[in-house]
Amino acid sequence: MVMVSDYTVSYDEEENIVVESSVISYCPMCGGVLSYRDTCERIMLLERRERRNYIIRRLKCHHCGKLHRELPDCLVPYKHYAAEVISGTLDGVVTLEDDDSEDYPCAATMKKWHHWLVVNYLRMEEYLKSAGRHLSGCGEDLLKPGITLFEKWRSSNVGWLETILCLIYNSGGSLAVF
Ligand SMILES: [Zn+2]
What we know:
Elements: E1 2-4, E2 8-11, E3 17-20, E4 34-45, E5 51-61, E6 67-72, H1 83-90, H2 107-134, H3 149-156, H4 160-170
Parallel strand pairs: 1-6, 3-5
Antiparallel strand pairs: 2-3, 4-5, 5-6
The chain binds zinc ion.
C-alpha cells in the first residue's frame, strides 16, 4: 500500500468517487517505480454511518512485481472511517454527545481508536524523529530526549493523522492494526 496526499476526485455514473493522481510513487518494499495496473473499490464511512464508495488505483512495482493500493489520505489503512472522523475523535472534537454523529461512530469504535493511538504512540514518535533527523531544517531542540515531537506535530497540524500515515506507509513502515 502507498498513500497520496495530492489527488483529484470525480464521480462516475454510479456515483462512485474516482480518485486520480499523477504522483509518481515508489514501492515501499524495494523502492522500484510503481505504475498503474487497474482499480479497485474502497468504502469510506462518515458520521451518521454515511457511506461513500471510492474507486482507487492499484499500482504495480516494475522491480519486484508487487501490487500496491494507492490510498488517498482521506482514508486510513485498514479502517473504514474517514481520517477526519478518526483524528476528530482522537482530538476530542467528535464525541458521543455530538448531534452530528447519532451513535456512529459508536462508543466501542471510538474506544478502539483511542487504544490504537496509545499502542502506536511511541512508534509514531520514532517515525517522526527519524524523519526529522534526515531533514536539515528540523531544529535540534525538537529531537532532544524528553521532547514529544508527536504532540507538537499534532497540535500544530490539522491534518496530522493524514501526514503521519503517509510518512509511515510510504517508507515501508506499518502500525499495529486492530
Ligand atoms: Zn517493489
